[in-house]
């Protein structure tokens, strides 16, 4: 059963990895929410008014108050709905470790980073994009090691930050002609483990659907 | 009187705005710490070992455990030493607002942003750097409004994030031939207010000293 039914709204775009974070966090906490799908080429007045600084999804609207930036939203969700276990451990040192790696994942495995792969034809620029992406993912592979989740046995903040990009791996692989599983088998096994969770399964689109979207984006950006 | 004397070390560089954040946060909490000044052109083994991902200052070492990234450190300091008031308000909504603006300040008023001004001769690139810098600072000027600090009457997280750059304003003004005070009088008044605090005064270098350092950097980077 959900809480605060009808008061929480996510201004969303289904393929946005950032919006996926917010939906996963809400679902982990069992918070009911409405999704308002945005047309990113014709943004709603509500989106423009709610996020005047960046004008981007996701926006989390709780009780008519908008909050922007996905990681700010994840912290907000964690701190507002405290009846479900926190996404962060309680020990300050362990919290710092989680924040450090979530920040690293956020900076290095990003929409813009992925665009260096799918937004370029085969060639030097795409190779550079693949190299950067895989180098960062390999760092995270080592950090994950043989743990179930980044924090150990508990799905948490780093997982929420990174797992949306798992739904983009297939599109990146198809565009860049490589295999994430070959390069980072533990990350792929972790992604499969995460997607078994209801919160993640309900928030991540099918890989094929993301790939079709990427093909549309490649047309729009004149990549092929 | 300080706490945990001798156990806390900051791997520092005096002109680093990021390291200033960490020192301000520690001083606000009354935590005694040792400063180990780094030569950024010849980094210590301890720095390279403590921050293998970025190899950058500041590193906060507490009880032999290193923590990297200044905003992760500020959160850590806030959550470890809880006997002094938190840098963040208690209300989840207000915390989200603080995190949003600290993140905005962190992304837009940065060493790299400043370098677009001091790292270029007069001309198009420098003008672009000035425009970006002032546009972001004007957004923050409006957010600050007539409040004493970004959070209201209490010096907090956004102030700690932004105020180190106040010590760089003079160098940017001299290199870019403009006046921050003319463009953003409330921000400058806020900076003067912040520097009256012992924590800030002890952590920010003299503006003239920063300017001399910037002149050295301009020589190193061949700007003039």
UniProtKB/TrEMBL annotation, chains A, B:
One term of GO molecular function: glutathione transferase activity
Alphabetized InterPro entries for the sequence: Glutathione-S-Trfase_C-like, Glutathione-S-Trfase_C_sf, Glutathione_S-Trfase, Glutathione_S-Trfase_N, GST_C, GST_C_Tau, Omega/Tau-like, Thioredoxin-like_sf
Locations listed in the record: Cytoplasm, Cytosol
Cellular component aspect of the GO annotation: cytosol
CDD domains: GST_C_Tau, GST_N_Tau
Catalytic activity: RX + glutathione = an S-substituted glutathione + a halide anion + H(+)
SUPFAM superfamilies reported for this sequence: GST C-terminal domain-like, Thioredoxin-like
One family name in Pfam for this protein: GST_N
Chain ranges of the GST C-terminal domain: 91-217
Domain GST N-terminal: 6-85
Domain of life of the native organism: Eukaryota
GO biological process: toxin catabolic process
Family statement drawn from the similarity comment of this UniProt entry: Belongs to the GST superfamily. Tau family.
The protein, known as: glutathione transferase
Species of origin: Cardamine amara subsp. amara
Lineage: Eukaryota, Viridiplantae, Streptophyta, Embryophyta, Tracheophyta
């Amino acid at each position: 059963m959900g809480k605060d039914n009808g008061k929480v709204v996510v201004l969303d775009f289904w393929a946005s990895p950032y919006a996926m974070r917010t939906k996963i966090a809400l679902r982990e906490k069992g918070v009911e929410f409405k999704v308002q799908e945005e047309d990113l080429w014709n943004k709603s007045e509500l989106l423009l008014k709610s996020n005047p600084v960046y004008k981007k999804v996701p926006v989390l609207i709780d009780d008519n108050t908008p909050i922007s930036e996905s990681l700010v939203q994840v912290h907000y969700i964690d701190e507002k709905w405290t009846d479900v276990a926190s996404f962060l451990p309680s020990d300050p040192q362990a919290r710092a470790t989680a924040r450090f790696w979530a920040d690293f994942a956020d900076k290095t495995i990003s929409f813009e980073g992925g665009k260096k792969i799918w937004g370029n034809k085969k060639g030097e620029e795409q190779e550079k994009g693949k190299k950067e992406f895989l180098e960062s993912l390999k760092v995270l592979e080592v950090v994950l090691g043989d743990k179930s989740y980044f924090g150990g046995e508990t799905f948490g903040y780093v997982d929420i930050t990174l797992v949306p990009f798992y739904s983009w791996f297939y599109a990146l692989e198809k565009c860049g002609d490589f295999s994430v599983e070959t390069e980072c088998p533990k990350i792929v096994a972790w992604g499969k483990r995460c997607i078994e969770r209801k919160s993640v399964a309900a928030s991540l689109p099918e890989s094929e659907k993301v790939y079709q979207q990427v093909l549309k984006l490649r047309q729009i950006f004149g990549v092929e």
